[in-house]
Amino acid sequence: MTPEPALAARLVADLVSLMQLEPLGDDRFRAQSEDIGTPAVFGGQVLGQSLRAASLTVGADRPVHSMHAYFLLPGEHAPIEYSVDRVRDGRSFTTRHVVARQQDRIIFEMSASFQTVDEGVEHQFAMPGVDGPEGLTSELDQRIALGDRLPEPWRSKAIQPHGIEYRRVDPEDLMRPEVRPIENQSAIWMRAIAPLPDDLTVHRALLAYASDHGLLRAAMLPHGLSFMSGQVRPASLDHAMWFHRDFRFDDWLLYVVDSPSAGGARGLCRGSIYTRDGRLVASTAQEGMLRIRKPGTARTPITG
Q1: How far apart are CA 141 and CA 20, in angstroms?
Q2: Is 113 assigned a catalytic role?
Q3: Less crowded by CB within 10 Å, the N or C end of the chain?
Q4: Could you tell me what percent of the chain has a pLDDT over 70?
Q5: Catalytic hit among 212, 226, 259, 272
Q6: Interstrand relation of 253-263 and 238-243 (parallel, antiparallel or unpaired)
Q7: Annotation says 102 is catalytic
Q8: 149-160: per-residue pLDDT in tens?
Q9: What reaction is this protein's catalytic activity (predicted)?
Q10: Where does residue 126 rank: exposed (0-12), middle (13-18), buried (19+ CB within 10 A)?
Q11: Cα-flanking dihedrals φ and ψ of residue 153, to 5°?
Q12: Beta bridge partners of 234
């Protein structure tokens, strides 16, 4: 279910506003936080805002090509300050390091690399042949359909419309997914539900935001686990992203994810992001904590 146009435009405007940072001087910026119903601030929000902060210190002629981040502490639903260190400005490459703080606590750090637009060899993996987004059930509708089965912590924010819509190609029970072979990929369509500004740094920041949605889930499916079941204590530990080609986030993008390994209470997940016409525009990788919850233990923050 996509909200009616006026509401969709307002929700997307709120999301864009989340990526508009307040300059504090000396390459420091303040950003607001949104509460999507998780105990800690959503990790994708910090990814997007940190990339936006770094981009504000680099010329538009040098788009980002990679970012590597670590989630150090759970963030609170409160303003976050980002400080950018101009590590290097070379002839072709620019490097930035970003630190996110809340109340003098460093909760996150990220390094990003930007490059001039250059010519070179080109190749890519082909996009998997999957159904398009039309006719697929949105995750929002899946959550609403759970009714009383939806755990109490999810019953308010998780059933409210959002500026980004997600549609899984192979929807499964959000509470009790079937065990899948580790070789199986999972795919989800995603987009902003209303037109975005033409500023491509906003599109990249919002893709970084969305790339944290469902990525760690790939390490749970081989074990029949889910975020909502309460059986597992998950948290994002790090996140890497590579930007290959230009795109618009208000057009549908296909996010294909898998998990080649899990062990030591950690799971490694990878993702490839394609446009509808099959162009590979970005790749992701993330390792997350995955601990089986013992009966009676309290829930821990989910950062991703």
Answers
A1: 29
A2: no
A3: N
A4: 95
A5: 212
A6: unpaired
A7: no
A8: 777 766 777 788
A9: a fatty acyl-CoA + H2O = a fatty acid + CoA + H(+)
A10: exposed
A11: -60, -20
A12: 290
